[in-house]
Amino acid sequence: MGHPVHLIIDGQPHDLTVDPRTTLLDALRDHLGNMSPKKGCDHGQCGACTVLVDGRRLNSCLLLAVSLDGAEVLTSDGLAPDGEPSVLHTAFLEQDAFQCGYCTPGQICSATGVLREAADGHPSVVTEDHGHDHPIELTEDEIRERMSGNLCRCGAYVNIVAAVRQAAGASTASEGTAR
Amino acid sequence: MRPFDYVRADDPAGAVAAMAERPDAAYLAGGTNLVDHLKLGITAPDLLVDLGRLDLADIEELPDGGLRVGAMVRNSDLAADPRVRRDHPMLSRALLSGASGQLRNAATTGGNLLQRTRCVYFQDPTTPCNKRAPGSGCSALGGYTRYHAILGASDACIATHPSDMAVALAALDATVVVLGDDGEKRLPLTALHRLPGDEPERDTVLEHGDLITAVELPPPDGAARTRSTYRKIRDRASYAFALVSVAAVLELDPDAARPTILSARIALGGVAHAPWRARRAEQLLAGAPATRESFRRAAAAELERARPVAGNEFKVTMAQGAMGSVLAELAGLGEENEDSPDE
């Protein structure tokens, strides 16, 4: 039985009719041809399908598309409008933060969420100064903890941490000058 | 995945009414556990009642100084709330110890309480499991038991409750607010989850259609003399379920000549079918001197009832050691660890 769903994907509005069993991941890949998010485990364990829904990083394999009527979805593709790489895309390239690249779009979306969560002062379990609500410096420990929902079977973790650290520094710097 | 109907509930009463007409319906909240189970064939509801648009996503202050946490508040939002971080850091730490950033962004307060065990046999429909298929047997007995219960289990089921949040809420004396077709009821969080007994298919005391609408946190104790924390022991440093976890609130008497315990509230995770409130240890600690010896004795007394199975005997020592060392840390006795395995 089809249900109508309106979604804004990477800035473009789409009207779909979906079986309620359809996950957001399958809607993106199979219905809309957006191959940016990847199907790794399809059980919310690997993070390869991570996208941003209304600004929050989520596993798209565990979301039913029918429940997201009206949502704005950003994939790693959408973070590079007109092919212009984001600060994270650039950092992943410069730090050599991938090998096969399959997990990379999920890593990029997840790291985009991490930068925002840290800027908003959201603690992680390794945050020492837990009670205070101020932007959190993304140390290597913080990045490892906050990115633990994204697996990389090539084992590029060391460079992924370096890339997120580079992007975190860049976004802090640009906030200082641009605002 | 078996086909199912889908409706979006507009208000809590409408959600409860939608469930009442359909015995095989299920609520959909964050979906992090349910959608996975639909794929695995662990559950096959014929209707999903989506709670996503209910007005239950706020954290409100109660007249008594407590907090009312709406059932649809996401785990990440609850953990980041400044009032929770200030008054109940144990709860914030417990939430942030669970799952991954993506999952915490989706998972809800109500759903976290109602998530099901991660017992590998429960999650594998090709194996017997009394919780999934009552009467079929327990594959964990004689199987892989590292994540299984050492307290309060039965011959029918040795599964554990996987939540970190619920362990902290148990130690906090939180209250669960439930809407059913006979109106609203309130129950202590420690009365929500059941031990398996001979009905392991029932995780909680809730009936079909009962909807958790909120969790209420009591006002914070006097911060000056109360300290709390959450410690989780697991096989990986992040993104893994607990082998053993401890949530503890310790209240010391500031006026006593020697450091004395006024009260302790302790809950253990990873060891039972429900968050395990360590009431025997609590009783022994009330009024006792705040010494390592007191904490060790209380932890040993609590674990006296442990009945591990082949393969998880180590969790008895681990739970005892963790409880003793967390309490010692809260009492300001430092992190000294005298319970090394080769002692």
Automatic annotation (TrEMBL), chain A:
<dbReference type="InterPro" id="IPR036010">
    <property type="entry name" value="2Fe-2S_ferredoxin-like_sf"/>
</dbReference>
<protein>
    <submittedName>
        <fullName>(2Fe-2S)-binding protein</fullName>
    </submittedName>
</protein>
<dbReference type="InterPro" id="IPR001041">
    <property type="entry name" value="2Fe-2S_ferredoxin-type"/>
</dbReference>
<feature type="domain" description="2Fe-2S ferredoxin-type">
    <location>
        <begin position="3"/>
        <end position="79"/>
    </location>
</feature>
<dbReference type="Pfam" id="PF01799">
    <property type="entry name" value="Fer2_2"/>
</dbReference>
<dbReference type="InterPro" id="IPR006058">
    <property type="entry name" value="2Fe2S_fd_BS"/>
</dbReference>
<dbReference type="InterPro" id="IPR012675">
    <property type="entry name" value="Beta-grasp_dom_sf"/>
</dbReference>
<dbReference type="InterPro" id="IPR052914">
    <property type="entry name" value="Aldehyde_Oxdr_Iron-Sulfur"/>
</dbReference>
<keyword id="KW-0479">Metal-binding</keyword>
<dbReference type="InterPro" id="IPR036884">
    <property type="entry name" value="2Fe-2S-bd_dom_sf"/>
</dbReference>
<dbReference type="InterPro" id="IPR002888">
    <property type="entry name" value="2Fe-2S-bd"/>
</dbReference>
<keyword id="KW-0560">Oxidoreductase</keyword>
<dbReference type="Pfam" id="PF00111">
    <property type="entry name" value="Fer2"/>
</dbReference>
<keyword id="KW-0408">Iron</keyword>
